[in-house]
Structure of Zinc-type alcohol dehydrogenase-like protein:
Amino acid sequence: MTIPTTTTTVAALEAGPVDAPDSFVEIELPVGEINGRDLLVEVKAVSVNPVDVKQRSGFQPQKEPKVLGYDAAGTVIAVGSDVELFAVGDDVFYAGSIGRSGSNTQFHVVDERMAGRKPVSLPFGDAAALPLTSITAWEALFTEMGLKTASTGTLLVMGGAGGVGSVMIQLARALTGVTVIATASRPESMEWARDLGAHHVINHHNLAEEATDVAPQGINWIFSPFSAGNVETYAQIMAVRGAVIAIDEPAGLDILPLKSKSQSWQWELMFTVPLYEPESDSQHHVLNRISDLVDRGVLKTTVSRRLTPINAENLREAHRAVEGGSMIGKVIVSTD
């Protein structure tokens, strides 16, 4: 295959709401340089995450169009001079980096250390739903929380039917001994969380009472994608020296209520590795482990909605769905 020099891309010309004409525009852009550890991937599917919505609506004015997309699956069609982990023809999946151009494009350049082997048991679309949420869940559980196979205690997964929560429930059940409590409020989202393996599903609208009922000794770890207004409740329902691992950044967050029980607050951002530890191949290994778990039938994809093909109209619709705040699982956009 001749290495392409341009790529058909869906980009934002300026920051704006989901329905603004310039928020999703199909244009032709240069492929860009393929440096030492880079792969050039023919993208077959992408998925949309809250970070895409945040980036699209709030990026600073810039000379070049903003290309979003932080989940992809596709086939390697060219490699940089120092590539060690993949070869032309390999199928990969990855989340990439907010420090580089995104994956909403026909041909995408990504560092091989950010990519993993696509699960052979999944089509490209179902695979594209997993990278960002799987890395986030894995790092939260096993890096920030420090859980091990023999770990016990209680884990509260806020937003259990969301993208990250859907993977975290499965990983915690499969790879640790903790009791998993998930929050949801609608019948369909509660059923989703139960089907993924949550021991208990409680309503976040009645969090303090229901969490205390199922974990009267206190919760050891809380995964929090929705922290605003919840700190005092977290302090109340957590055990002494319990820990919150958050992925959001509400303005004016006050964590002082955690002090009296010596509780802690940490953040998980999967882009920390590509931004600040670019030489690390940790996310490559995480994604390969995720791929193995999928192919063994231990972990399943979290796709709940599929759109095709990859174009401005469908990416706009995917953003609209994520922005609505009631998504169960993930929405993917694929070439077929």
